[in-house]
Amino acid sequence: MIKKQYDAADMDKRPNTGPCPFPQLVSAVDPTGSAILITNALGVIVWVNAAFTRLSGYDLLEIAGSTSTLLAAGHNTVFPYLGLWQNSQEDGIAWYGELENRSKFGTLYITEEFVTPVLGDQGEVTHYIAIQHDVTPRRRPQRLAEQAVQHA
After folding, report:
1. pLDDT tens digits, residue range 55-114?
2. How many CB atoms lie within 10 A of CB 23?
């Protein structure tokens, strides 16, 4: 099935996604190699770039309206996701860490993530921007070695 491709200039034309929250930012970061997603203040995804789609398998039309807990690998539970959003919201500070995610196709992948809140005129959190880097090729062998030591 061929899906319509949208570029940054077409963001407001995508069905069921609402207006683009940051059109200038989107046009700047859409072509980057880093996976980027933008959520509203409640952590509901409102925009993802093409690199996010390549990494996770989810395009914007599939994931808009969901939270990033959709990506949580089963054994991780959703607590890291909920904690990072809650702490960022309460403190208004950025979060950096490593998460194991599950793609649309069931593949596990490991990302280093930087999540920063976007503050409104009154200092309230209006959105979050998450930048993800796939570190699976580097971290998977390390994690397997750590598990082998724990089970030895």
Report:
1. 999 999 999 998 887 887 765 544 455 555 555 556 677 888 888 888 999 998 989 989
2. 13
Angle (CA) 122-64-5 rounded to 5° is: 115
Residue 80 contacts residue 92 (beta carbons within 8 Å):
no
Closest CA to 113 of 133, 128, 137: 133
3-state secondary structure of 100: strand
Could you tell me where the beta strands, DSSP code E, fall in 25-106?
35-40, 45-48, 95-102
Asked if 117 contacts 125 with a C-beta cutoff of 8 angstroms, the reply is: yes
Q: Please give the backbone phi and psi of residue 67, each rounded to the nearest 5 degrees, phi first.
A: -105, 165
The Cα 45–Cα 35 span in angstroms is 13
Q: Which two tokens stand for residue 83?
A: 């904690």
